[in-house]
Design brief:
By secondary structure, the protein is mainly α. The chain has 14 helices and no strands. Helix 5 packs antiparallel against helix 11.
Length: 290
């Protein structure tokens, strides 16, 4: 009597090629505009207004390439000063709300005090308040205190606008840290501040990096808040304000706009690529409880 041996078939990756093809097409579609922006930034004004960017890409040796666009943008265009102003605005406007939100999230998660739930509910409720509602009252306060047109004023504005989301994201992450490590730290004589600096901050790096990306990109690409609280003066104008002034009312300087826009993309790309390994882990870690 012969025993039948069941044949175990290895699972086939059916549809795997379709998924890869779909991902490739999505990446290609998202990359095409950036590629066109890069190509146009090296073309002359005549070529940019006369033919599509793909003509230079398909015939690179017969097309005319130039670095004059970048030279004009970074020197006479005032883009370099605007780039420095954007860095001066974006870096503190990212660090300050992250620092305050980390302290607040730790307090809401692990320190018991009266009114904690009410205060946290107010913070969450502020997420649905439109930013535009606070512009006029805040501008009146700034005018009364001479903060309009100053970097300190826009730092405070971006901090206030970014704190609710920062506290909410960091609370979801910090509240899920193991309770045992805090109990052990307190038994060893650690203070709440020591537990925050030695335990919470090192363990919350993914969440902090995720919010840093959100906040930095939002501040870097902001136009409305910068226009209201900083204005268009060349001493304090940021990249978004300078980009709007370069293009003109009818878009005559399109070749300069592409070069300026590509310059403005470099810093956010560096920030995202530097922190991307923390990005998904930080977003998903605090999204599901239990």
């Amino acid at each position: 009597m012969t025993a039948k041996v069941a044949r175990i078939e290895e699972p086939t990756d059916r549809g795997g090629w379709l998924v890869k093809l779909t991902v490739f097409l999505i990446v290609a579609v998202w990359t095409v505009p950036s590629l066109g922006l890069l190509v146009n930034s090296f073309r002359t004004s005549v070529d940019s207004s006369g033919t599509g960017w793909w003509t230079s890409l398909f015939s690179p040796f017969t097309s005319e390439w130039t670095l004059d666009n970048y030279n004009r943008v970074l020197t006479s265009g005032g883009m370099f000063d605007a780039l420095m102003n954007s860095l001066i605005v974006a870096i503190p406007a990212t660090v300050i709300p992250i620092t305050l939100a980390a302290f607040a999230a730790y307090g809401f998660a692990w320190i018991k005090f009266r009114g904690r739930s009410l205060l946290f509910g107010i913070v969450v409720g502020l997420l649905v308040v439109p930013l535009q509602l606070s512009l006029v009252p805040l501008l009146k306060i700034y005018q009364a205190t001479d903060l309009t047109g100053s970097f300190i004023g826009i730092w405070l504005a971006h901090t206030g606008f970014g704190l609710p989301l920062a506290v909410f994201l960091l609370y979801n992450y910090i509240s899920q840290l193991p309770k045992d490590i805090f109990e052990s730290a307190y038994l060893d004589g650690a203070t709440p501040f020591t537990a925050f600096t030695r335990l919470v901050l090192p363990l919350s790096v993914p969440a902090l990096a995720s919010f840093a990306i959100f906040q930095f990109l939002w501040v870097w690409n902001d136009f409305l808040v910068a226009l209201v609280f900083l204005g268009t003066s060349s001493d304090v104008a940021v990249l978004t304000i300078e980009l709007a002034s370069i293009v003109g009312s009818r878009g005559e300087a399109f070749h300069l706009l592409t070069a300026a826009a590509f310059v403005s993309m470099l810093i956010p790309l560096i920030v995202f690529l530097s922190l991307q390994r923390f990005f998904v882990r930080g977003l998903l870690a605090g999204s599901v409880k239990g």
